[in-house]
Amino acid sequence: MVKKNFDGILLTQFNNIKYISNYYPTSSAICLFKENPVIYTTAMDKELADETSLIEVKELKSISDLKKVFKEESLKKIAIEGNLPISYYKKLEGSKSKNEKWELAIENFLEKERMIKSPNEIEKIRNATNIAHKSFEELVIREKQEKRFTDWEIAYELGYLMRNNGASEESFETIVATDKNSSLPHAPMGNKKLGNIILMDWGAKYNGYCSDTSRTMIEDNDKKQKEIFDIVFEAYKKSIKGTKSGVKTCEIDNIARSVISGYGYKDKFIHSTGHSLGLNIHETPSISTQDGTVLEENMVITIEPGIYLEGEFGVRIEDTVIVGKNGVEVIGKLPHEI
Amino acid sequence: MVKKNFDGILLTQFNNIKYISNYYPTSSAICLFKENPVIYTTAMDKELADETSLIEVKELKSISDLKKVFKEESLKKIAIEGNLPISYYKKLEGSKSKNEKWELAIENFLEKERMIKSPNEIEKIRNATNIAHKSFEELVIREKQEKRFTDWEIAYELGYLMRNNGASEESFETIVATDKNSSLPHAPMGNKKLGNIILMDWGAKYNGYCSDTSRTMIEDNDKKQKEIFDIVFEAYKKSIKGTKSGVKTCEIDNIARSVISGYGYKDKFIHSTGHSLGLNIHETPSISTQDGTVLEENMVITIEPGIYLEGEFGVRIEDTVIVGKNGVEVIGKLPHEI
Asked: Domain coordinates of chain A in residue numbers?
């Protein structure tokens, strides 16, 4: 902060406010991060903030009132987060009078801080993953497939099991994609009975931290499904093997992409190889072609190559890993062939 | 659009994209709304967009590529939505070269369009509300209270019932606030056994449209709870009675606030009296002190006064109503005293 010559930083991402204060807003809130950071929140959220925040909480009626705060605190150069909606930014800038001296600059301050996880954060991600895996095993998906349960019934039961095992909620909306729906990486839930291939992508949230896992259950005797599964699994294993501190994220993406391209499915791998996660399910960096971040120890990322054959089916295999000096630790021991 | 002298509008809110095209994005997408509107989406979402969109779909690799689109389409003055993150805006503006002539202006174009609901939209909100109410009745909350179920078990069972009755999902995270947790308007879920007062706020989503209802179940012989319940119910009934086309939203808010203030609880009504809803659970206008919107026929809004006694308990009563010429139609017939 001193180096950048900012007097204060306005945090607007709810997970950054949680990271700083332990309070997670339910309506709107801002954290002014300076020597003594302060939360500004609505009257409606004040009691919850008072109960959960580790730092001082004040009430703010309107975003324009921030100007008074800038004056009271003698703030001249203030960093704001890039997620601030343009309309808020313009409202604040537009209300500035000639004799006011403050200026706003975009700075994604905590994004970098949050890339490296503390032992405490890693423990929470580990717990979230264990809950997610245990719940998946309790679901006994193959049995549900025989009984022709529907996609949303599966997602719903898995959600119940995860909560029952200690999760506060899902870390994102569970994907249960069956038959040709599995060729959509983010298949929306329908009311489809489970068919002969099932792609699932799910996660638990534990003390605010996310887990993220995908498995694809293919049919026993389907050669095409087996071929695609094996290619994705090879891409998965080679990317895992190539991941360690000092390596660039785009290099890992390239490992997965090369395997899949080598088999002629280059155009069918239609997303990046992975992403960092923590309080958010998607954090910086992404493990993608255009990202040049050098991995460091205690980053926590997903590895999730996939192949999607439009109108036919799709396969994705995903685990969450902790980056180490000489390799990674894959969190959990959930089998890949189910 | 012609009046405002825009060549095109960039829609970035997912629900506006759904409103125009029927496609709901799962990653990132933009709709360029001009004579022939076009969706630009990611490779990952392309198949889903092709399947569900009623308008043309193209792929866009990066937000900077929009510049090429502006050139191809000879767009000079482009409206953008206020929800666009400031970082995206700056990226696009920053990539502009000297000989490029386009400029961006903030305009919340569809917000006004979406305020008045079509008969088809009203039918969907009605269906969503019926599903939510039927499911609540099937839940038999008083029985669950006796059996000391926990808050999340109730929320979860209600979610199951709503899906079973035809909802695609909840329209927002269900609130089940018991005992002193009910004094938090947006109480986060704990793992608390149901006590002697329960405040619930829930909604179903049906074909993209939301419902929104709150009920508070007080204890039979608690005088204080009964006193507060009666005040909130009076505020609810008087606001409902005062709502019709031609009335300003702040006037309705004032009706509810005056009743509550009259009994000395002015500072305990810590949110606005209601909000419009539709594809979003919160739409423009809000029924609040500072909003001057004049109600029109076929707006659909909530009326939801509440009193929150910190550390004790809270009461909120909420229904969704359709604004008419001479009054409102309250959607559903769910009793208020349960």
From this structure: 8-113, 119-330
| Cβ-Cβ contacts under 8 Å, B192 against chain A | none
Q: What is the pLDDT of residue B189?
A: 83
Gap from B250 CA to chain A (nearest CA, Å): 17
Give dist(CA B248, CA B294) in Å, integer.
4
Concatenated DSSP letters of A216-249: EE--TT-HHHHHHHHHHHHHHHHHHHH--TT-BH
What is the average per-residue pLDDT within A63-76?
A: 86
**CATH for the A8-113 domain, from 2.30.180.10, 3.40.350.10, 3.30.200.20, 3.40.50.150:** 3.40.350.10
Q: For residue B320, what are the CA distances in angstroms to A265, B34, B136, B172, B300?
A: 51, 34, 15, 15, 7
List residues bridging with B248 in a β-sheet.
B294
B175-186 pLDDT, tens digit each: 999 999 999 999
The whole-number pLDDT of residue B68 equals 86
Residue B109 has pLDDT above 80, yes or no: no
Structure tokens at A336: 């890949």
User: Is the separation of the CB atoms in A181 and A154 below 8 Å?
Assistant: no
Least confident of A211-225, B78-92, B149-163: B78-92
Which pair of structure tokens corresponds to residue B101?
A: 């002539």
Interface contact B186-A48, CB threshold 8 A: yes
| B85/A84 touch (CB, cutoff 8 Å), yes or no | yes
B48 shares contact with chain A (CB less than 8 Å): yes
The residue of chain A with its CA nearest to that of B27 is A186
What are the C-alpha distances in Å from A70 to residues A34, A43, A87, B281?
A: 11, 20, 19, 33
What is the rounded distance in angstroms from the CA atom of residue A284 to the CA atom of residue A303? 14
> H helices of chain B, where?
14-21, 43-52, 66-72, 86-94, 109-113, 119-139, 141-146, 151-164, 223-242, 249-262
CA neighbor of A284 nearest in space, from A297, A275, A292 = A275
Phi, psi torsion values for A299, nearest 5 degrees: -75, 150
- The CATH class for the domain spanning B119-330 reads alpha beta
